[in-house]
Structures are given as C-alpha cells and as structure tokens.
Amino acid sequence: MEQVTPDVRHESLSCKTFPHLLIKMINKSRWKILGLLAVFLLMVWYTISREESFDFHFQDEKMTCPFREVEKKAAQLIPNYTREPPLFLHLKDYFWVKTPSLYELPYGTKGTEDILLRLLAITTYSLPENFQSLKCRRCAVVGNGYRLRNSSIGEVINKYDIVIRLNNAPVHGYERDVGTKTTMRLFYPESAHFNPQTDNNPNTLLVLVAFKPMDFMWMETILHDKKRIRKGFWKQPPLIWDANPKQVRILNPYFMEVAAAKVLKLPVKHLWKLKEKPTTGLVAITLALHFCDVVDIAGFGYPSSDDKKQSIHYYEHITVKSMASSGHNVSHEALAIKQMLELGLVKNLTYF
What residue ranges are annotated as transmembrane (predicted)? Predict the structure, then answer.
C-alpha cells in the first residue's frame, strides 16, 4: 500500500480548499459585483439614449423635412394662424403707405410712427440670402434657463440651420452647453448688456423687441451716436453698444400680440391695460412658429416658486424671486409651452 507523505496530503488539501475559498469569496462579494455591473450598464444605456435623443433624432429629420407640419399644428393653438405678416418692420409701411396700427407698444406701433420712421431709415428689414435659400428651416430657440448648465448639448444646437438666442445670454465660456452658433438674438435695451461682437457671430441678426417708445429712441441714439437717453428705463441700458446697423432688425409687434392674445389668451381688448406681458422667450418661440419648418427648444422653464435658492439662469445666480415685479407670469407661460409640447408643435432638447 502506497504511503501518502505529509507534503502530498497538504497539497491535495490545498487543491480541494482553494476552489471552496474562491466560491466563498465570490458569494460574499457577488452583490457588490452585481451592483457595479448594474451601474456600468446604466451608464452605457444613458450615454446611448442621450446620443439617440439628440443626434439620431436630428439626423433622421435631415432626411425628410416635415413641410407644413408646424403650420397644421400651430393652427390648433393659434386662432386665425397665418404666415403672411413679415418678421421685421419695413420702412415702406411708415414712409409710403403709413399703415395705421391698432395698438400701442408692445403690441403695435400707434403713436411712435415718427421715431420709428427715423430708425427704419438706418436699419433694414430683409432676410439674409442664406435664410431664404434654405430648403428646410430647422430652428432651435435657446432659452437662458439653468437646466442648460452641464447639458453638453452645444454641438447639437450648432447643427440647426437657425439658432435664436435671448437677451444678454452669453456664449463665450459656455460653448459646451449652449453652442456657438447665433443666427438671431432677440433683446430689448435693458437686456442689451452683451458684446455684439464676442457673444454673436459676424452675421447675427440683432432683433429689437420694443416694449415702449423709449426703446426706439435708445436704438436711434446708439446707431446715430446721439446724446444718450438715461431715463425711462427700469434698468440702465448700455451707453456704448458696438453694433453694425446692417445687422439690426425691428421685430414686428404682431408676434408680441399673438403671444399675448392667442398663446397666453390674455383679453385682447384690454392688452394695453394689463401688467402681464409675454417674455422675450415666448415671443421668440411664437416667431419661430411663424417662420420655421422644425421648432425645437432648449433651456426653457423655471424652478418652482417654493425653491428660493435655485438660479433661473445658466450664467448667473438670480432666483425666481427676481421675476416677481417683472410683469411676466412664468407659470402661465409654462402651461402654454407644455401645451405646445403635448401637441408636438415643438420638441425639447432639455427637460421641462
């Protein structure tokens, strides 16, 4: 009978014990392994779904243009919807024809015809050739909301044919989240605290949204380099503003009227009496609905009124409290934008 030595017995025992210990270790840590695996799979899914929601969605739309889809859906929201009114005011309407306006600013031009005539004489109204030659106008209206921060959708925004930005929202330093392309920038004097050169492109259209006669007067003094006006504004507008008059346009107040009376459904007979007025953002969306074949939005929405600390902008710390005396009803506008999303009239690149 063969005798087993101690060394052989130890080796045999080790061979039997090692798999047992390995299985025991795996059993103890299997929940950790499964947890790590689940986190990894979740990260992969999030990355793929994020890319699909932006890039694949956009590439698919590049293949076919949904002509007249926006018009059909907009007619469900906006009574007597039409694309006939021009985007910008024309000199001929105040020089040759002198078209009468039913409303005063910001819903019409009644009472400001003289100053407007002088302003339109040094600006223009035409759409750039690259606008007119587009076979399909895919537009992104970029709001100023905090939810743009760390969104990483800058490259997605740059893919749109037309990118509309608002007020003094900066681009420089935030390119990853908001992109670099700016086709139009809607603003009013108090929000014109941006550098027309560094935060826009050379061919960006600077579109004045006039709320009061002083807004026309401010623009005229800036472009004519006259003595600056310092009174009549709730915030001092820029005294020096390096803009090319050829890039300046005056927004047709028709779109402010539509945003107020038809989108927000404010009483049209009493518009001029109401303190509530549409934000520049809602006016920009309304403009896009009358011009574009595709309208996507990003950076819209405000934190709840209970959230006293959350910033409302991606570039500065201002809370929702600052909107209290602005004359804007952001809750009312949120409902209007939600309705647009439900109708499929606009699509959202961020969350709402």
Answer: 31-48
The neighbouring-strand residues paired with 165 are 185
What sign results for the dihedral spanned by CA atoms 327, 316, 140, 241? positive
The reply to whether 182 falls in a domain is yes
d(CA 85, CA 90): 11
d(Cα 343, Cα 352) in Å, to the nearest integer?
15
Nearest to 291 by CA among 137, 78, 101: 137
Report pTM.
0.83
Alpha carbon of 209 to those of 89, 93, 105, 202, 291: distances in Å? Answer: 11, 18, 10, 20, 17
Same domain for 344 and 206: yes
- Its domain, for residue 102, covers 64-348
Structure tokens belonging to residue 239: 């005294």
User: What's the rounded Cα separation, in Å, for the pair 70 and 338?
Assistant: 16
**Domain identity same for 242 and 157:** yes
Please, which residues bridge with residue 249 across strands?
Answer: 207
Tens digit of each residue's pLDDT, the chain (352 residues): 445 454 544 444 444 554 555 456 556 566 666 666 665 665 545 444 444 444 434 544 555 899 899 999 999 999 999 999 999 999 988 876 667 888 999 999 999 999 999 999 999 999 999 888 999 999 999 999 999 999 999 999 999 999 999 999 999 999 999 999 999 999 999 999 998 888 899 999 999 999 999 999 999 999 999 999 889 999 999 999 999 999 999 999 999 999 999 999 999 777 778 889 999 999 999 999 999 999 999 999 987 767 778 898 999 988 877 766 677 788 999 999 999 999 999 999 998 7
Which residues are registered as beta bridge partners of 186?
166, 207
On whether both 130 and 42 belong to a single domain, the answer is no
Q: Are residues 242 and 135 in the same domain?
A: yes
Same domain, 50 and 68: no
Nearest Cα neighbor of 215 from 233, 228, 242 is 233
CA 30 to chain centre: 46
Q: Tell me the Cα Rg of the chain.
A: 28
